[in-house]
Amino acid sequence: MGYIPVTLEEVLNSTKTEVINRYRTYLNPELASLLSLLGFDKMFVKAQGLKVFDDEGKGYMDFLGGYGTLNLGHNHPEVIQALEKVFDLPNIFQASMGLMAGALAETLAKITPGDLNKTFFCNSGAEAVDGALKLARISTGRKKILYTDNSFHGKTLGALSVTGRKYQDPFRPLVPECYSVPFGDGDTLARELKKGDYAAFIVEPIQGEGGIVVPPEGYLKEAEDLCKKYGTLLIADEIQTGFGRTGKMFAVQHDGVEPDIITMAKSLSGGVIPIGAYIATDDVWSKGYGHRDRCILHTSTFGGNNFACAVGLKTIEILIRDNLSENARDMGNRLHRKLEKIAEEYKLIKEVRGKGLMIGAEFYEPQLVRGLSMEYLAGMVSGLLLQEYHIITAYTLNNPNVIRFEPPLTVGEEEVDYVAESLENICKQQKSFLGVAMDIGKKMLKKRIGFGE
Ligand SMILES: Cc1ncc(COP(=O)(O)O)c(C=O)c1O
């Protein structure tokens, strides 16, 4: 015995080397090497709003925003205060009906489109997706689930079964009866749904990890109509697009679409406490669980805890009060326009895509060595933005050649302009920049490190 636990106080005084060593030894050594290679091995010790600060006191602008988790920025003071206000409540107490969960569920029923009314709370996006898939099966009595190629719905076994192939292969066999169709292709969707035996079609209104891909105009509405026609439930995965990110509270609202189920997580609790949820219509929910025998068929120990739900309530209040969807729309349009100009001028960026403050810039793939292209240019640019301009960004998981911009929705013109100017500077110096990219790429080849895998 004789093990002396690491105390919180010690950890708070850790050196950067200690932090890296612990990560390597006790968490994920390969990921640690990858982060170091990209220069993402800084030690961040403070965060507020759009800014994070390293151990040398240098400030950085967070344009990654926790992949859509930090719509209010880091540690929003009112969210932290909300948490302090409820600290005396029992947080987890299954032998009662939680004070906060009902109130947050009521709020969600009011802000979501259509007749969505019944919420299930859990702790992450993937868990929300698993819950939604189960609800679709139990509610319709059907087994088959349809999803889209290149999607991302999470990495638990259920969510993975409806996530694009890239992450699936090492984990087969997955949940059976899950089939995919090309994203944005209404004809193939119609052909599949016509079979009349799908429980649900799950889709992201804008694919996030797939590379910030916006479907063709009218696709989501068509999906809604087809689902209605063939008795399939439409599940909109708004885990990344939700809570103002794309310029509306939920992205399906751009198209007037009313899904049967919406999944959400990430920014729902202001980036402070883990949370996940789905919301469904009364009809769908009661067909599934509206019976005494069935009401505890799907539960989650921490789901609906008072702390997470209290900060959820405060988060939504702030999003609405401060018109953050509108700011996302305006700042997003501004950044989009500027990025398109850069793309036109420097021919390094193939395409700029997205809505509101969910923007992706896809880079061309330069040839690294004959026959092998460099599909990680976005990661390199991201590294340069961090090192030289103190801007935090990242590439999308399924497509490492897309750099994503998802800052807090509180971002202002000055910050948007700074990011665009910095990217332009990098593109201007493209010769030396490509040199750096090649260099890192070759090192990676030597080490056989695969990005995003
Ligand atoms: C659209 C979408 N669905 C589901 C998930 C999974 O969420 P989590 O990582 O909380 O499990 C993500 C995460 O990025 C996502 O973007």
What key phrases describe this protein's structure?
2 domains; 453 residues; globular; alpha/beta; binds pyridoxal-5'-phosphate; disordered C terminus; Aspartate Aminotransferase, domain 2; 16 helices; four-stranded mixed beta sheet
Q: Figure out the total of helices.
A: 16
Q: What is the fourth-level CATH superfamily of the largest domain?
A: Type I PLP-dependent aspartate aminotransferase-like (Major domain)
The top-level CATH class of the largest domain is Alpha Beta
How many β-strand stretches? 17
**Helix fraction by DSSP (H/I, runs of at least 4):** 40-55%
Tell the overall outline: globular
Radius of gyration: 22 Å
Give the SSE layout.
Blueprint: H1 8-12, H2 16-27, H3 29-37, E1 44-48, E2 51-54, E3 59-62, H4 65-68, H5 77-85, H6 99-111, E4 116-122, H7 125-140, E5 144-148, H8 157-160, E6 178-181, H9 186-193, E7 198-203, H10 219-230, E8 233-237, E9 261-264, E10 276-281, H11 282-289, H12 306-321, H13 324-346, E11 349-355, E12 358-363, E13 367-369, E14 372-373, H14 377-389, E15 391-392, E16 394-395, E17 402-405, H15 413-428, H16 430-447
Parallel strand pairs: 3-15, 5-6, 5-7, 7-8, 8-9
Antiparallel strand pairs: 1-2, 2-3, 4-10, 9-10, 11-12, 12-17, 13-14, 16-17
Helix pairs in contact: 2-3, 5-12, 6-12, 7-11, 9-10, 13-15, 14-15, 14-16
The structure holds pyridoxal-5'-phosphate.
Pyridoxal-5'-phosphate is lined by residues 67, 124-126, 129, 152-154, 204, 208-209, 237, 239-240, 265.
